[in-house]
Amino acid sequence: MLQKGISYDSSIIGLIIVNLIPIFGVLFLNWDLFTILILYWCESAVIGIFNILKMIFAKSDDKRLKFILIPFFAVHYGIFMFVHLMFILVITSFSPTLPELDFSNIFTAISQIFLGLVGLFASHGLSFYSNYIQTEEYKKSDASELMFSPYGRIIVMQFTIIIGTIITAIFGLPKYVILLFIFIKIIVDIKAHKKEHERFLIKKEL
After folding, report:
1. Taking a C-beta distance cutoff of 8 angstroms, is the pair 64, 143 a contact?
2. pTM of the model as a whole
């Protein structure tokens, strides 16, 4: 039980640290709103990648069923990510402080947030190992259930940041206003993380 508590706490600490990266970027690296949104878009991609790994390791499903569900998830999650990216391009185009955006700006933004990407993979990788593998959540997991599990967390998480970005961009507010919404996002993220893993702890006790 102590080991589970330690691994659970370490993954939350990692989650908090990686969520502080955009705050550092705004304050010290001059990140704009578009760069912040691209970082969180990349986080959604990282969540999807680790969800595929969870589906692969899940023990409760017929292996033949997983060969159908995993490619299906990859396709519909990819469509979700594309629509999400188009939405980012549209809402940031309303900002009077940002230049006209196109796909070339996406690669520029990603190059600026390389450290953030490394942190995202490290944080979610730590959570995957300490909460999913080490505590044997995978033995109680179903690929069919995991196929839709990222959406609830991502929609709530991204909605918080996107609303903050819309308010900041449309009204021409200083980009530092987005820091408030980043802090709100951290709180939402921690609650979603706890809810997800507490659900598996309950299943394991049944």
Report:
1. no
2. 0.82
